[in-house]
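DM from R.C. (forwarded with permission)

"hey, sorry to bug you on a friday — could you get me a structure for this? deadline for the figure draft is monday and I only need the backbone to look sensible"
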Amino acid sequence: MKDKDIIKLKEQVYDANMALVRHKLVIFTFGNVSAIDRQKDVIAIKPSGVDYEKLKPQDMVLIDMDGNKLEEGLNPSSDTKTHIELYRAFENIRGVAHTHSRYATVFAQAILPIKCLGTTHADYFYGDIPCTEPITDSSIEGDYEKETGVLIIKTFKSLGLDYSHIKACLVGCHGSFTWGDSADDAVFASAILEEIAMQNLYTQLINPSVKSIKNTILDKHYKRKHGKDAYYGQKRSIYRAK
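My reply, with the result:
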């Protein structure tokens, strides 16, 4: 496809995938990023099993919302159906990232949420980062990657969480998925998630009985960056307040 918007979409997704490497969130082929053009219902995503050092912008795979390839070439990421489920359910997101980054995956393998223990966390996520239960055997035997997305969505619904304020989820025994206003924002969320997971682990090693911060501190720090009366920093994307 030679549409200028689609070419730009591929370039953005390529850059976001390479950012996973720069931020040391992936090794070898351990992750993927996608983005969606909501007007065209076209998704660009990393190809399956291709080393990052070999990737080129034109290698990004175009698919529709049913997972059908829109041009000849490489196969899309094996996690494509998970991305699609998130795009279907979380209607305002435009980018999704998946990693097996070290500290976030430690919590996923422990099947534990990442508690909001301090203001670093509260600056970017409005509460604890949830972790799903391990996927069921029937879901594994069925459409595994689609069911992984369904599991994330069910977890958010059961906990009454807002995907626009907690842009991350751990999948039990697996890894993390993050999302945002673009592919770049999704990677940014992954990088912040990894830093918070590291801080969380060491904090709980020092004080195993530590509890999540009180709501007044959470409200203050999150809303001063992301609330309707936010006053931190300059005007920019919700996730790019630095």
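R.C.: lifesaver. DSSP finds eight helices and six strands in the chain.
me: no worries. The mean pLDDT is 95.
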